[in-house]
Amino acid sequence: MEKMLHVWHGWFFVLFLCCAALVFSNGVHWILFRILRKKKVEGTPKTLGWGLQRHLGAPARAIFLITCLFMVLPFAPNELKPYLGQNLRQVLGMAFVVSLGWFAIGLVYVLETAFLRRYDITAEDNVRARQVHTQMVIFRRLAIAFIMLVTIGGVLWTFHDERLWKAGTGLLASAGIASLILATAAKSTASNFLAGLQIALTSPIRIDDVVVVQGEWGRIEEITSAYVVVKIWDQRRLIVPLSFFIENSFTNWTRKSADILGTAFLYVDYTVPVEALREQLLKVASTSPLWDKRVCGLQVTDVKERTIELRCLVSSRNASENFDLRCLVREKMIAFIRDNYPDSLPRVRVFSKPVQPESASGPDGPNGFLSSGEAHQDGSSESYGIMEKAASTGGRPGL
Questions:
Q1: Measured between alpha carbons, how far is residue 141 from residues 147, 198, 224 in Å?
Q2: Which residues contact 348 (CB under 8 A, 6 or more apart)?
Q3: Do 340 and 371 share a domain, yes or no?
């Protein structure tokens, strides 16, 4: 009975210490991160604690809790140490290593956030910011992969068993053929990995770049370790392997800067006053906030059989604004021509050929023209239609 009470008191003491460790660790964690959260709310955007709670709160709590449990283990009853001591230490050791890896990954996110605060991707001229964001995304993924590899090695290191290390050594020694097979199977993965490094160093694409890939216009939304997500203008997503941007040609509208030139074509009659349209184009662009006041011009770029081609060239700060500006130019210019020069809209010209009559009231008709569908004396026929009537009378068709 006394022995059982002794064990019971030992269990109670260990249970009490475990509960105290839980309460103490959670209390310290709550106080520390409460202070950091308060500084974030009251401080400036450059507060040092920005992002610590989100990325480091949970792993810090786990590390502190496991450390407190390690401190409690020596106080376990002697009767229980043969059953719980080594096994529990092994489990806590593995959990501690995993928590350290978790904390290191969170620290990578914190450092990335602190570094990227100087580069605002929402700014108007954000070429440098987008380049840095893209590079940091790729380097962050590589760092996380390295930390995970080191964490797995740390977990294996906690097993102090020679048989495990011998088995691992034998596995590595006999993995020659297997490594060749895996290398062949993972060829696309390796190429995407190397393509990611090339993209990070050379920056052919960056986050928020405007690109045309396989005929689709969109923006680079996400760059992962294996593929790129392109957000198309109609809210679809185009998934493209990383290696595609290294091995194939594509169009990047924001490689050096976001500003861009755009064209709107008009097809009008030869009689249109080009100078009046040029002045109207400048007036339309000047009244729109979409124009960046760099380029605005109108030129005759082609002459076709029935119309002439006018190119309205305008500039904007980015591709989205330029698309809207081009649509506005088409709308306003067509309305201007319709309201002020309706005869300059595209038209089809018909030429009627007169026939010399033999007499005033000869076989060709009273006006000296062939009527529609009438025949010559030699049997041939010509059909001129109602436009012949208009040409002979000098009036409009039907008069």
A1: 10, 14, 8
A2: 306
A3: no
According to DSSP, the β-strands at 216-223 and 296-303 are unpaired
Copy the structure tokens of residue 267: 């097809």
According to DSSP, the residues that pair with 230 across neighbouring strands are: 220, 238
Same domain assignment for residues 37 and 112: yes
Q: Which is nearest to 108 in space by CA: 79, 78, 148, 81? A: 148
Q: Return the exposure string of 132-150: e unless at least 16 CB atoms fall within 10 Å of the residue's CB, then b.
A: bbbbbbbeebebbeebeee
Residue 158 reports pLDDT greater than 70: yes
Domain's final residue, options 118, 151, 181: 118
Query: Does 111 reside within a domain?
Result: yes
Q: Classify the C-alpha dihedral 115-121-124-128 as positive or negative.
A: positive
Terminal C-alpha separation, the chain: 129
Q: Does residue 299 belong to any structural domain of this protein?
A: yes
Prediction pTM value: 0.55
- 60 by Cβ neighbours in 10 Å (0-12 / 13-18 / 19+) ranks as buried
Q: What is the pLDDT of residues 290-311, one digit of tens each?
A: 999 999 999 999 998 889 999 9
What domain count does the chain have?
3
| Rounded Cα–Cα distance for residues 309 and 66 (Å) | 76
Distance in angstroms (rounded) separating the CA atoms of residues 242 and 372: 68
Answer yes or no: do 26 and 7 share one domain: yes
Look at residues 236, 193, 192, 228 and name the one whose alpha carbon lies nearest to residue 209.
228
Enumerate residues 6+ apart whose C-beta is below 8 A from 79.
Answer: 7, 10
314 bridge partner residues: 262, 296
Domain for residue 254, yes or no?
no
pLDDT at 45 over 90: no
Residue-number span of the structural domain to which 392 is assigned: 350-399
Structure tokens at 81: 């140490």
103 burial (CB, 10 Å; 0-12 / 13-18 / 19+) is middle
In whole angstroms, give the CA distance from residue 160 to residue 363.
120
Task: Let me know whether 303 and 375 are in one domain.
Answer: no
Q: Could you give the count of Cα atoms lying within 13 Å of 302 in the half-sphere of its Cβ?
A: 10
Please state, in angstroms and as integers, the Cα–Cα distance from residue 176 to each residue in 4, 20, 43, 115, 190, following that order. Answer: 58, 52, 57, 42, 18
- Is it the case that residue 334 has pLDDT exceeding 80? yes
